[in-house]
Amino acid sequence: MCTLDKRGSLFFLTFTGDDQHRINPNVIGNLLSHLSQVKAQATPGSVLITQAQGKFFSNGFDLDWAQAAGSKQGASERLRHMVVLFKSVVASLLSLPMPTIASLTGHAAAGGFVLALSHDYIIMRRDRGVLYMSEVDLWLTIPGYVNALFREKIGDASVRRDVLLRGLKMKGDEAVKRGVVEAAYDGEEEVREASVRMAEELGKRKWDGEVYAEIRKGLFPQLSAMVGLGHKKIANPRL
Amino acid sequence: MCTLEKRGNLFILTLTGDDQHRINPKLIGDLLSLLSQVKAQATRGSALITQAQGKFFSNGFDLDWAQAAGSEQGASERLLHMVESFKPVVAALLSLPMPTIASLTGHAAACGFVFALSHDYIIMRRDRGVLYMSEVDIGLTMPDYFNAVFREKIGDASARRDLLLRGLKMKGDEAVKRGVVEAAYEGEGEVRAASVRMAEELGKRKWQGEVYAEIRKGLFPQLSAVVGLSHKTIATPKL
């Protein structure tokens, strides 16, 4: 599943185990609970790093669980259910009162790529691992909020087309070059260290969490609206 | 405060003096008045250059004036008042019937950066001066029209995130590379000379001012709407 630890000002959300870290209602519940705790313990200087063990960051929604419904109709309902539930995870990350980093040491596909993109920064490996939106290859359409996420996070229209319409498996170097991720490093260790370094750099700014979250939501207005978030003004400058 | 001169077809709006050119109700009033004069005297071939003396283009809203209200509530009200009052300046620039260039020989921060971005082109120094949205560092959220300016003027989503959410102090070379400004030059003299050259080049096209302004507003529909501008169709081509 996933665990939460705290090291100094840094929160680590880790998908444990060597599996594909598929996203199902249990995992979603687990994530929401952890993110809630993170929010409750936030102070200026806090930063979240989300990471995973094994070959995958996450390979997306649990299609096996969906199929276990026993019928095409049932499978479709279960998948739709996960898509809707997952909006809350995106909303929670979008409104988290601290900087967030997705630290990818394995593949991030479909819902897994969406989870990664819902963070402020992505750091990934350059030697292994891809970013991949498998939907076009699996004959699944893209939910509205996922389109909004890609549209507002990735400015380059050709990149969005290549990722969503062409099923491109994007490796680290290309992801950096095309503005999808912040940086890419050789090997698992380097990614983890770089993520901690970046988190510490960001944490030093001691941003007010509520202001930070509002500015973030302002950067992604369509996505925020689609996952049910409103916004507010804060006009008491710290001088 | 600010002066307006005319040199041939060029209007030069200058923020005078060695101070931070903080934006307060008085300066806003002066800017609106001068921009109104520019509009009244516009002819085909006109161009506007906005520039400043000293180390700053503008360091944003006059937070000292806000604080002089004497209470947190009062300061907040004065700040919100300035935020609202500045919208007509953005509207005036967006509907100005001629090309506009922000000629930056000093720092442009917060509302000062928004003021620069409200021009069609920015030319800045590469050896000194930064573009900086200080809000995240001082604990202020973005007004809606600030978000709209960034969203519609800067296509690179990572650049928007770095400027608004990370409080990046962006120097000339990076600003050119990431598509935030048109060009960057060594030293004050070169920036001013380049701005005049560019204004003269644009002026030679002898664009029809009303058409130019409508096309400009069409490029920035969300911003235009947020600052209260509507648009019209002009369908009588010069043949």
Lay out the secondary structure.
The complex is a heterodimer of chains A (about 240) and B (about 240).
Chain A: E1 2-7, E2 10-15, H1 25-40, E3 47-52, E4 56-58, H2 63-67, H3 72-94, E5 100-104, E6 107-109, H4 111-117, E7 121-125, E8 131-132, H5 135-138, H6 144-153, H7 157-164, E9 169-170, H8 172-177, E10 183-185, H9 188-204, H10 209-219, H11 221-226
Parallel strand pairs in A: 2-3, 3-5, 4-6, 5-7, 6-8, 7-10
Antiparallel strand pairs in A: 1-2, 8-9
Chain B: E1 2-7, E2 10-15, H1 25-40, E3 47-52, E4 56-58, H2 63-67, H3 72-94, E5 100-104, E6 107-109, H4 111-117, E7 121-125, E8 131-132, H5 135-138, H6 144-153, H7 157-164, E9 169-170, H8 172-177, E10 183-185, H9 187-204, H10 209-219, H11 221-226
Parallel strand pairs in B: 2-3, 3-5, 4-6, 5-7, 6-8, 7-10
Antiparallel strand pairs in B: 1-2, 8-9
Describe this protein's structure.
The complex is a heterodimer of chains A (239) and B (239). Chain A is an alpha/beta fold and 239 residues long. Chain A has a single domain (2-226), classed as 2-enoyl-CoA Hydratase, Chain A, domain 1 (Alpha-Beta Complex). Chain A has eleven helices and ten strands. Chain A has helices at residues 25-40, 63-67, 72-94, 111-117, 135-138, 144-153, 157-164, 172-177, 188-204, 209-219, 221-226; strands at 2-7, 10-15, 47-52, 56-58, 100-104, 107-109, 121-125, 131-132, 169-170, 183-185. Chain A has a six-stranded mixed β-sheet, with helices on both faces. In chain A, strands 4-6-8-9 form a four-stranded mixed β-sheet. In chain A, helix 1 packs parallel to helix 3 (72-94). The longest helix of chain A has 23 residues, at 72-94. The termini of chain A are far apart. The mean pLDDT of chain A is 96. Chain B has 239 residues and is α/β, with parallel strands linked by helices. Helix content of chain B is 48%, strand content 17%. Chain B contains eleven helices and ten strands. Chain B has helices at 25-40, 63-67, 72-94, 111-117, 135-138, 144-153, 157-164, 172-177, 187-204, 209-219, 221-226; strands at 2-7, 10-15, 47-52, 56-58, 100-104, 107-109, 121-125, 131-132, 169-170, 183-185. In chain B, the strands form two sheets. In chain B, strands 1-2-3-5-7-10 form a six-stranded mixed β-sheet, with helices on both faces. A four-stranded mixed β-sheet of chain B has the order 4-6-8-9. In chain B, helix 1 (25-40) packs parallel to helix 3 (72-94). The radius of gyration of chain B is 17 Å and the shape is globular. Chains A and B meet through helix 10 of A and helix 2, helix 3, helix 5, helix 6 and helix 7 of B. Chain A: It holds the Pfam family ECH_1. Chain A: This is Enoyl-CoA delta isomerase 2, peroxisomal-like. Chain A: InterPro entries: ClpP/crotonase-like_dom_sf, Enoyl-CoA_hydra/iso.
